[in-house]
Amino acid sequence: MTESLQDKMIGEEVIKRFKEAQKVVVTQEKRSKTVHASHLTGECVLKTWYEFREKPEPLSAQSISNFYVGQILHKNAPLGKKNEVHYGANIRTMKPILTKDINQNNVFDCVTGTVDDLIEFQGEMVIADKKTWSSLKINHRAGGTYEKRDKTEPDPNYIKQLNIYKLLIYITDGVEAKKGVLLYLDKATSFKDPMPFVFDLQPVDEIRTWVLGKLDKIRQLVEPERTITKYCNYCPFLKICDPPRSEIPKWTS
Ligand code: SF4
Question: What is the Å distance from ligand 1's center to 36 Cα?
Answer without folding.
Answer: 18
